[in-house]
Amino acid sequence: MKLRSRHLLALEGMSKDEITLILDTAETLKEILARPIRIVPTLRGVGVVNLFYEASTRTRISFELAEKRLSAEVVNFSASTSSVKKGETLKDTVRNIEAMKIDMVVVRHQASGVPYFLTQCMKASIINAGDGAHEHPTQGLLDVFTVREKYKRIKGLKVVIVGDIKHSRVARSDIWGFTALGADVSVCGPTTMLPLEIEKMGVKAYSDLDQALEGADVVNVLRIQLERQRGSLLPSLREYSNKFGITRDRLNRLNQNFTIMHPGPINRGVEITPEVADGPHSVILDQVTNGVAVRMAVLYLLSGGEGKVE
Questions:
Q1: How high is the mean pLDDT of the chain?
Q2: pLDDT tens, position by position, 235-267
Q3: Is 69 noted as a catalytic residue in this protein?
């Protein structure tokens, strides 16, 4: 089986079989990360540009490591040190990059829809590494992968996403990914941070955290997206922490074998306390490790790969 598209723009509309294919491939590729020599020649000769117009640590490094583990030829682009500072348009930038014989572009941009726009400008395969408040598909995939790795299933699990849902691209990708595989997904946050008609995405919406957490298996805690907000949506961060912060006391409402997740970066003491973030039920660092394997799988499959990777 292969992916239907040569791009990865979003998890919305992606089938259960395609998501499962990526997860299964990532499970195979993760074994490479445990080897003494963590490099295979799978993408030798394939040129990949990491086109980041937004600040990033985990995603950028994760993609770069994934590309190098597969022996791709990697070029990192930073808008702050490029001709963008001289007024060059996005279209001219990417067309000049493609003229250098690039096969794949990993793009992160503050504007929603940029990855789709690039598919109209370029022949290269496009991977969305986060576009505005739209989606972050590889983060959604690695979150689903991490949960499946622990529970050996997704179907029937109760997943709660807590925080700034309105401005979160991670929340949207997680919703599409988890619901496609049969999880019962809920979202919780201040009413000012819940999108209108969010229930149309197949989730339950709560503004009472204790009610949302009752009987949950997985809690994915989101950062407050202050850089994407227009106007003040909160009286104060202290009030947000009191009403929506994940603390040790609130963990009593969860199922016994619960899981705490966070896509990072963490605002410790705001959306989650340090003792919970670093506690025994946290898989936050596992998410980071799994991000490399999942991104290796995406690169491999979009390059036309199928079958076993040696």
A1: 93
A2: 688 899 999 999 999 999 999 999 999 999 999
A3: no
Q: Specify whether 136 is catalytic.
A: yes
User: Does the pLDDT of residue 231 top 60, yes or no?
Assistant: no
Q: CATH assignment of 137-283?
A: 3.40.50.1370
End-to-end CA distance of the chain: 18
Answer yes or no: 59 catalytic. yes
Which residue among the candidates 16, 58, 228, 253 is catalytic per the annotation?
58
CATH fourth-level superfamily of 16-136+288-302: Aspartate/ornithine carbamoyltransferase (3.40.50.1370)
Quick one: pLDDT band at residue 7, thresholds 50, 70, 90? very high
Which residue of the set 30, 60, 69, 136 is catalytic?
Answer: 136
In percent, how much of the chain has pLDDT > 90?
A: 86
Catalytic residue among 7, 30, 42, 59: 59
DSSP for the chain, please give it.
---S-S-B--STT--HHHHHHHHHHHHHHHGGGGSSS----TTTT-EEEEEESS--SHHHHHHHHHHHHTT-EEEEEEGGGSGGGGT--HHHHHHHHHTTT--EEEEEESSTTHHHHHHHH-SSEEEEEEETTTB-HHHHHHHHHHHHHHHS--TT-EEEEES--TT-HHHHHHHHHHHHTT-EEEEE--GGGS-TTGGGGT-EEES-HHHHHTT-SEEEEPPP-GGG-SS--SS-HHHHHHHH-B-TGGGGGS-TT-EEE--S---BTTTB-HHHHTSTTB-HHHHHHHHHHHHHHHHHHHTT--S---
Where are the domains positioned within the chain? 16-136+288-302, 137-283
Instruction: Say if residue 228's pLDDT is above 50.
Output: no
Q: Which of 85, 86, 152, 200 is catalytic?
A: 86
Among 108, 158, 172, 223, which one carries the catalytic annotation? 108
